[in-house]
C-alpha cells in the first residue's frame, strides 16, 4: 500500500464531484485526500486526489475514472516531479507567554506564518507539503494542550524544472 | 421555429429512429405523453409496472441492438426503474430512460414525487443528467443516445424537470456529437494483437473463452471463422452461450459455477486461454488463485477497466471483439489440436451433461422438446435454476437465440423482457422460461401481453421452491429450507425439511390466474403432455399462452461448484466430487 497522487480534469458540472467521490466509496478504494477547483477554463475543474493503494488497485482506479463521461483527463502523478502543497490552519489555545514565544520559533523553523494572535491564542497558517503538515501537527500535539486543526487537502501541479518535488 | 421541450423531445426520438417507447405516465411526464399522443410514428407500450417496463425495453434492445427507450414520471416512477437500470448496466444494454422531474424551482423542497434519481442511479448507469436549461435539451438527448449505444453500451438517464418540458425554445436537433471526455476506442492495437498471436500459435492446448462481448460486438461470424480456421475448442460464459452454435463440434460447453465437467477441466488444463468479451466474473473463475493455472491468458475487451481486474492477464487487448478477431484472421493457421480435443472428449464422456432420468418430466426433457418443435426462437429465461437448465440444454445458433440477465441476476426479468422481444419481432417464436418464484415478480405484465396481442409462450417451471437457493440449502445448509418453500404457510412446522403429503396447496393457481387475464393456461404434469401443450400454444398467435410444468421439487442444477471454490471441485450428477 502506497500513497499515490492523481490529477483529474473533469467537466465543471453538477454532480461530478459526487460521482467521483462515489466511485471511491462504492468500490472500497482508500481515498485520502480530494480537492477540487476550477481551472483557467471555467468549464473545467481540476481535482487533486490522494489515494492509498497497491499497484493493481491503483491501475483499476485510473481505468474506472477514465470510464466516466465527465472525466476529461486522468494524470498519474506518482512518478511525476510536482509541486504539492496543502493549506493548514492550526489554532493553539490556552498559551502561556512562554508558549507563545515558542510558537513563534516553531513558525520560523517550519517556515509558516502567524496570521492571528490573541491574549492566549495563536493562529498558524501553513502552506506545506502534507507530510510536513503532519509533522507540525504531531509536534504541536506533543507540546501544547489545546490545538484546533483545519486542513484543506493537497493541491498539486506538475513541475516546470523537472527536479523539484 | 420555436416549440415546447416536449415537442423537441418527440422530434429527437423521431430523428433517432425510435419506433417504440415503453412508457408509464404520471404528473410530471404528462406533457411528454401529450406530445406523443399527437403523432403516429412512435408507438407507446404501457406495461403495468415500471420495473416490467424497463425489462421490456431491455429485451427490446438486446434483441434488436437498438436503443431501448423508457419514459416514466418522477419519484416512484423513476425509482421503480432502478433494478432495471442496474440490470442493463451489468449486461451492457443500450437504454435511454427519460424520467419526469418536479420543476427546477421545486428541486430540493421535498416536493410531491420529487426524488434525486440522478443521485440514486449514479453508480449503476453509464451516464445520467438532469436538464437544467431548455437550450441544452437537444444536445443532451443526442449525446444520451450516442453514449448509450457506443463503446461498451449501457443505460443513460435523462431527468426532465416539468418546466423544461413546457418551456418554449428552439426545436433544432443536432447532427453531431462531440463530448471531450468520451471518445470510445474500438480499434485494436496491432502490436498487442501480434503479441497475442505469437503466444497463441505456440500453444499445445489452446482454448477460446467467449463471453457476452461476442453478442454485443456482433462478432458471431468472425468468431465462427476463427474457430473453423484454427480448430481451437471453445468454452463460453453463460452470457456468451450461443456465441457459436451449441452443436458445433469444437464447442465444449459453459464454464464456471454450473459449467460442464469437460469445460472446467479444459480451463484448468489449457496452456493458452484466449478470452474475448468476458469480465472474469467470480461465477466464471471460482477461486482466483486456481483459475486456469497452467495458461497464459490473452484478453480482448472493449472496456479497459475489465482487463486485469479480477484475473491477471498476460496479454491485454482493448478493442471491439469483432474488429480484433477480423484482424487476427489474417494470420491464423490451423492448429494441431487433435490430441487435445480427444482429451476433452474423454472428459465429456466421463461426466456428460444431463439430468437424472426416471423421475418423469424434467427440465431437460422440456427444453429438448423446445429444441425439437421449434426451428427458430428467442428464448428469454429468468434467473435461477430455470436459467441454468435453459443455458445447459437449449440448442442455440443464429436462429435460436437466448437472452437472460447474466451479471445482476435479476429475478423477474425474463417474462417482461420476452414481451420486449416479441414487440420488436412480431413473427418470432418468443418463449419465456421462468421459475414459479421469478414469474410472480412481474406477473402483472400478463395484462401487457394481452393488450399488446403478444403470442409469447410463457413456460413456468413450477417446483414449489426458490430452487437455486434451495439447492444451496440442500448441499451446504443441512437441508434447512429457510424461506425457500413457496407453499409454506404460517401454520407449517418451523423446522420443515422438505415436502410431504400434509403440505398446503400452492398459491396462486397459475392456470386460473392466466385465465383471469384471458391468457390461455395449460398445466403439464407428464412428459406426454409437453408436445401437445406447445402445439396448442403455436395455434394461439394472438394472445400469450402460459404453460405450467409441474416438475419435481428436488431437481438440481449440476455440475455445481460452491462459490469461492476452485473450478476443479465440482459436485457432479453422479454424486462424486
UniProtKB/TrEMBL annotation, chain A:
Gene Ontology molecular function, alphabetical: acetolactate synthase activity; acetolactate synthase regulator activity
GO biological process, one term: isoleucine biosynthetic process
Keyword terms of this UniProt record: Amino-acid biosynthesis, Branched-chain amino acid biosynthesis, Transferase
PROSITE patterns per the UniProt record, alphabetical: ACT (PS51671)
Boundaries of every ACT domain copy: 5-82
InterPro entries xref list: Acetalactate_synth_ssu, Acetolactate_synth/TF_NikR_C, Acetolactate_synth_ssu_C, ACT-like_dom_sf, ACT_dom, AHAS_ACT, AHAS_small-like_ACT
Catalytic activity: 2 pyruvate + H(+) = (2S)-2-acetolactate + CO2
Domain of life: Bacteria
Record GO cellular component, one term: cytosol
Record carries keyword Transferase: yes
EC identifiers of the protein: 2.2.1.6
Pathway stated in the Swiss-Prot or TrEMBL entry: Amino-acid biosynthesis; L-isoleucine biosynthesis; L-isoleucine from 2-oxobutanoate: step 1/4; Amino-acid biosynthesis; L-valine biosynthesis; L-valine from pyruvate: step 1/4
Alphabetical list of Gene3D superfamilies matching this protein: 3.30.70.260, ACT-like. Chain A, domain 2
Annotated function: Catalyzes the conversion of 2 pyruvate molecules into acetolactate in the first common step of the biosynthetic pathway of the branched-amino acids such as leucine, isoleucine, and valine.
Assembly, per entry: Dimer of large and small chains.
Protein family according to the UniProt entry: Belongs to the acetolactate synthase small subunit family.
PANTHER family xrefs: ACETOLACTATE SYNTHASE SMALL SUBUNIT, ACETOLACTATE SYNTHASE SMALL SUBUNIT 1, CHLOROPLASTIC
Protein name listed in UniProt: Acetolactate synthase small subunit
Annotated organism of origin: Anaerosacchariphilus polymeriproducens
Automatic annotation (TrEMBL), chain B:
Pathway participation: Amino-acid biosynthesis; L-isoleucine biosynthesis; L-isoleucine from 2-oxobutanoate: step 1/4; Amino-acid biosynthesis; L-valine biosynthesis; L-valine from pyruvate: step 1/4
Cofactor(s), by name: thiamine diphosphate; Mg(2+)
One function term, GO molecular function aspect: acetolactate synthase activity
EC number assigned by the record: 2.2.1.6
GO biological process, one term: L-valine biosynthetic process
Domain Thiamine pyrophosphate enzyme N-terminal TPP-binding, residue spans: 5-118
Pfam entry (one): TPP_enzyme_N
SUPFAM superfamilies cross-referenced by the UniProt entry: DHS-like NAD/FAD-binding domain, Thiamin diphosphate-binding fold (THDP-binding)
GO cellular component assignments: acetolactate synthase complex
Annotated Thiamine pyrophosphate enzyme TPP-binding domain residues: 382-549
InterPro entries: Acetolactate_synth_lsu, AHAS_TPP, DHS-like_NAD/FAD-binding_dom, THDP-binding, Thiamin_PyroP_enz_cen_dom, Thiamin_PyroP_enz_TPP-bd_dom, TPP-bd_CS, TPP_enz
Cofactor binding notes: Binds 1 thiamine pyrophosphate per subunit. Binds 1 Mg(2+) ion per subunit.
Keyword annotations from UniProtKB, A to Z: Amino-acid biosynthesis, Branched-chain amino acid biosynthesis, Magnesium, Metal-binding, Thiamine pyrophosphate, Transferase
Sequence ranges assigned to domain Thiamine pyrophosphate enzyme central in this UniProt record: 193-328
Catalytic activity: 2 pyruvate + H(+) = (2S)-2-acetolactate + CO2
CDD domains: TPP_AHAS (cd02015), TPP_PYR_POX_like (cd07035)
Family: Belongs to the TPP enzyme family.
Protein's name according to its UniProt entry: Acetolactate synthase
Amino acid at each position: 500500500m502506497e500513497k499515490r497522487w492523481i490529477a483529474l480534469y473533469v467537466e465543471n458540472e453538477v454532480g461530478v464531484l459526487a460521482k467521483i467521490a462515489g466511485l471511491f466509496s462504492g468500490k472500497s478504494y482508500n481515498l485520502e485526500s480530494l480537492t477540487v477547483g476550477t481551472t483557467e477554463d471555467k468549464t473545467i475543474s481540476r481535482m487533486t486526489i490522494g489515494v492509498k493503494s497497491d499497484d493493481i488497485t491503483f491501475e483499476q482506479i485510473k481505468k474506472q475514472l477514465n470510464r466516466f463521461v465527465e472525466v476529461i483527463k486522468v494524470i498519474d502523478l506518482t512518478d511525476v516531479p510536482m509541486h504539492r502543497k496543502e493549506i493548514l490552519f492550526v489554532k493553539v489555545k490556552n498559551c502561556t507567554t512562554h508558549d507563545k514565544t515558542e510558537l513563534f520559533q516553531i513558525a520560523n523553523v517550519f517556515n509558516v506564518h502567524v496570521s492571528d494572535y490573541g491574549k492566549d491564542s495563536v493562529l498558524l497558517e501553513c502552506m506545506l507539503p502534507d507530510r510536513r503538515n503532519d509533522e507540525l501537527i504531531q509536534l504541536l500535539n506533543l507540546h501544547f494542550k489545546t490545538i484546533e486543526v483545519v486542513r484543506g487537502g493537497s493541491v498539486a501541479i506538475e513541475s516546470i524544472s523537472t527536479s523539484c518535488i | 421555429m420555436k416549440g415546447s421541450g416536449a415537442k423537441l423531445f418527440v422530434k429527437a426520438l423521431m430523428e433517432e429512429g425510435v419506433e417504440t417507447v415503453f412508457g408509464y405516465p404520471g404528473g410530471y411526464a404528462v406533457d411528454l405523453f401529450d406530445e406523443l399522443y399527437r403523432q403516429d410514428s412512435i408507438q407507446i407500450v404501457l406495461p403495468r409496472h415500471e420495473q416490467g417496463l424497463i425489462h421490456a425495453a431491455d429485451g427490446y434492445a438486446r434483441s434488436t441492438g437498438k436503443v431501448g427507450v423508457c419514459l416514466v414520471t418522477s419519484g416512484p416512477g423513476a425509482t421503480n426503474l432502478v433494478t432495471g437500470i442496474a440490470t442493463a448496466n451489468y449486461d451492457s444494454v443500450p437504454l435511454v430512460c427519460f424520467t419526469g422531474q418536479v420543476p427546477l424551482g421545486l428541486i430540493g423542497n421535498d416536493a410531491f414525487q420529487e426524488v434525486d434519481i440522478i443521485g440514486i442511479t449514479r453508480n449503476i448507469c453509464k451516464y445520467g443528467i438532469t436538464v437544467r436549461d431548455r437550450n441544452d435539451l437537444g444536445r443532451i438527448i443526442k449525446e444520451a443516445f450516442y453514449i448509450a449505444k457506443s463503446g461498451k453500451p449501457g443505460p443513460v438517464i435523462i431527468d426532465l424537470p416539468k418546466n423544461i418540458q413546457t418551456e418554449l425554445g428552439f426545436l433544432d436537433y443536432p447532427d453531431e456529437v462531440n463530448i471531450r471526455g468520451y471518445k470510445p476506442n474500438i480499434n485494436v492495437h496491432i502490436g498487442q494483437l501480434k503479441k497475442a498471436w505469437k503466444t497463441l500459435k505456440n500453444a499445445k492446448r489452446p482454448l477460446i473463452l467467449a463471453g457476452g462481448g461476442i453478442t454485443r460486438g456482433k462478432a458471431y461470424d468472425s468468431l465462427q471463422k476463427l474457430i473453423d480456421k484454427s480448430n481451437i475448442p471453445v468454452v463460453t460464459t453463460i452470457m456468451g452461450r450461443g456465441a457459436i452454435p451449441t452443436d458445433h463440434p469444437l464447442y465444449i460447453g459453459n464454464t464456471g459455477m454450473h459449467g460442464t465437467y469437460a469445460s472446467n477441466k479444459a480451463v484448468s488444463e489449457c496452456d493458452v486461454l484466449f478470452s474475448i468479451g468476458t469480465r472474469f466474473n467470480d461465477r466464471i473463475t471460482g477461486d482466483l488463485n486456481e483459475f486456469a493455472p497452467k495458461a497464459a491468458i490473452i484478453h480482448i475487451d472493449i472496456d479497459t477497466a475489465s482487463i486485469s481486474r479480477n484475473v491477471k492477464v498476460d496479454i491485454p487487448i482493448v478493442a471491439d471483439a469483432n474488429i480484433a478477431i477480423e484482424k487476427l484472421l489474417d494470420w491464423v493457421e490451423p492448429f494441431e489440436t487433435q490430441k487435445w480435443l480427444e482429451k476433452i472428449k474423454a472428459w465429456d464422456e466421463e461426466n456428460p451433461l444431463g439430468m437424472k432420468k426416471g423421475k418423469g418430466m424434467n427440465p431437460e426433457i422440456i427444453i429438448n422438446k423446445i429444441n425439437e418443435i421449434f426451428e427458430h426462437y428467442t428464448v428469454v429465461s429468468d434467473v435461477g435454476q430455470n436459467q441454468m437448465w435453459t443455458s445447459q440444454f437449449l440448442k442455440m445458433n443464429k436462429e435460436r437465440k437466448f437472452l437472460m440477465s447474466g451479471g445482476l441476476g435479476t429475478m423477474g426479468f425474463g417474462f417482461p423482457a420476452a414481451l420486449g422481444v416479441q414487440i420488436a419481432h412480431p413473427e418470432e417464436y418468443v418463449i419465456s422460461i421462468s421459475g414459479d418464484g421469478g414469474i410472480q415478480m412481474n406477473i402483472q405484465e400478463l395484462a401487457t401481453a394481452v393488450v399488446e396481442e403478444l403470442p409469447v409462450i410463457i413456460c413456468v417451471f413450477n417446483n414449489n421452491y426458490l430452487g437455486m437457493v434451495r439447492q444451496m440449502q440442500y448441499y451446504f445448509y443441512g437441508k434447512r429450507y429457510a424461506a425457500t418453500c413457496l407453499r409454506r404457510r404460517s401454520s407449517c412446522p418451523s423446522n420443515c425439511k422438505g415436502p410431504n403429503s400434509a403440505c398446503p396447496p400452492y398459491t396462486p393457481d397459475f392456470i386460473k390466474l392466466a385465465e383471469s387475464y384471458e391468457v390461455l393456461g395449460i398445466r403439464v404434469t407428464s412428459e406426454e403432455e409437453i408436445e401437445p401443450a406447445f402445439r396448442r400454444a403455436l395455434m394461439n398467435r394472438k394472445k400469450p399462452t402460459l404453460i405450467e410444468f409441474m416438475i419435481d421439487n428436488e431437481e438440481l442444477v449440476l455440475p455445481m461448484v460452491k462459490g469461492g471454490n476452485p473450478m476443479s471441485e465440482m459436485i457432479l450428477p453422479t454424486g462424486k466430487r
